[in-house]
User: What shape does this take?
Amino acid sequence: MALLTCRDLSLGYDGHEIVHGLNFNVESGDYLCVVGENGSGKSTLMKTILGLLSPLSGEIELGDGLKRNEIGYLPQQTEVQKDFPASVWEIVLSGCQNRMGARPFYRKEEKDLALSNIEKMGIEPFIKRCYRELSGGQQQRVLLARALCATQKMLVLDEPVSGLDPVVTAEMYDLIARLNREDGITVVMISHDIAASLRYADHILHIAEHLFFGTTEEYLASDTASAFLKGGDGK
Amino acid sequence: MTEIFDKLSLYLQFSFVQYALIVGVLIALCSSLLGVTLVLKRFSFIGDGLSHVAFGAMAIAAVVGLTNDMPLILAVTTLSAILLLRTGQNTKIKGDAAVAMISVGALAIGYLLMNLFSKSSNISGDVCSTLFGSVSILTLTLTEVWLSTVLSGIVIVIFVLFYNKIFSVTFDENFAKATGVRTGLYNLLIAVVIAVIIVLAMNLVGSLLISALVIFPALSAMRVFKSFRSVTICSGVFSVVGAFLGILIAIVAGTPVGSTIVATDIVGFVIFLVIGAFAKRKA
Assistant: This one.
């Protein structure tokens, strides 16, 4: 059974429909990139998968024992976070909240988990540093470590490389690819970077007037892809 | 100098001065704890808005002739707090505009009611003392001291128990919600606690100056400290010291209590600003 199945999904908010008739599924271990133009509904899809928005119609089914609150989420940076006094340790540890229930304080196992993810992301030199003083790439690693604390199965990433320079972007992609390959973590990524999506992902979901879902090879052979790649938005 | 200390030690023997110090310090501590969250969530002005609502409620209570106006004020303020924090996420009227609207509206209605119906001969005096804090902090009864102590105690316990949840809701509400934290519930909790603090703090500094108790400690601590925990602890200490010194100065110098505390906080803020600037240059 698939990890995530979307059937006849209609998305939008305030009763305003953006996407309809969305069908796709994500198997365990997949690397799916969601591409499409600005305003096509990529972020809305992501928020719906995470349960932040409810679908207008259709259904989202989670399988393989994946629970809604066990999806690791890497959001785009918010205005609030740019001036937020928090140490790397505090932020990564907050990724363990979904294990806490009503329990008020962290136990040793949560602290160990946070520490191991900090090491995995290579940010242990900054563990006591303030988040807002780190570079963009370091900040993304912190948020990725936090997302890893929340999941063992599935990461949902919202444009993880936006605002990063080319070198750091490449490092970030490699890091995500390694998590997918070595730790078997399923990746669902929203991306503007069509070239990188084609290079790393094994499945593509293209949200536009003509929806496309399939493997990367199928996508490259499709009409949707050729139109999109020729058009202005393809980089 | 010794003269001042003599005067102080004399005053400190009076129970009303002791009451004022206890209540003042507790309220300052509570407001500073939540202040960090409010400042970071861009809700600095909610304190201001709510205190004006509390002023309006107080005016209504006076007009209706309630002798014990606390429950009414608390209820109205809590309700407004919930409404305001809700509109923060809602669409039609944005958070800041909603705060401004409710706050000014409540202020105007409150003053209007007081003028139309008040039997007091000194309306402007009444209004002034409600807005800027009167000597009422120095005329607390034992019951009021207990009430303030218990409510402050509850606020502090709630804050400590939910500290980690409050952090995660403040830092990244979407992530928190996606990982199953009941963000709506905690926003509600924050709203209710804020309302309680505002109503308590009206005694201390009056409804116009409450924002100062919420904002100054948090902003000062944020100049110097870098983690959420150290900022929270520092703003608590800052606020307690500010309130303590402020009350003592006010008693010795005979100045209004509320504005003296705020003035002390401003001085503290400037000191932290300078320390922060130096620390940055050194780094």
